[in-house]
Amino acid sequence: MKISTKGRYGLTIMIELARHYGSGPVSLKVIAEQNDLSVHYLEQLAAPLRNAGLIKSIRGAYGGYVLVEEPAKIKAGDIIRVLEGPLILVEGIEKEEPAKQALWLKMTEAVKEVLNTTTLADLTEDQKKDNNEQYMFYI
Fold it and tell me: Which UniProt keyword terms apply here (predicted)?
C-alpha cells in the first residue's frame, strides 16, 4: 500500500486542526500557507473528512474547520480509510502460496495496528518534539 498525497495531506489538515483544538476554527487557507499546499486540493480533502464526521465547518469571517471530537479520540487509521479506502498492502493474496499469504496478512495487520492505535494527540505530540529538537541553544 502506498499512501497517496490524499492521505498525507489529509493527515496534515487533521494534525493542524488538532494543534488548534479548543482555540476555534482554522481556515484551509492558513493550513495551506503554513504547509505550502494548494488550498483547492485541501478543500477537496476536507469534504470527505466532513462527510465522515471527523471535522465540521464553521461559516463566517472567522470561520474554518474544527475537529468534531478531541484529538485523543481520532485515530490515524480513521483518516486514512476515509481518504484512501481499505487498508490492503497486497491484492490477490488468495492466489499466493500459504507462506507468502501469511506474510502479507501479518504485514497488513501490523500496518493496521499502527494506524488504529496512533491518535491525532500522539501525532501532535510527535510534532512538538520534532519542533523542540530543531532549536539549538548556545551559552
Answer: DNA-binding
pLDDT tens digits, residue range 17-68? 999 999 999 999 999 999 999 999 999 999 999 999 999 999 988 899 999 9
Give the Cα separation of 94 and 135 in Å (integer).
Answer: 50
Task: Please state whether beta strands 64-67 and 55-58 pair in parallel, antiparallel, or not at all (unpaired).
Answer: antiparallel
Is the pLDDT at 138 greater than 80? The verdict is no
Distance CA 55, CA 57 (A): 7
The whole-angstrom separation of Cα 87 and Cα 112 is 7
d(CA 26, CA 17): 7
- Domains in the chain, ordered, with CATH? 5-133 (1.10.10.10)
Please compute Rg for the chain using Cα positions.
18
Average pLDDT over residues 91-117: 88
Ordered DSSP codes for 68-99: SS-GGG-BHHHHHHHHH-S--SSS-GGGS-HH
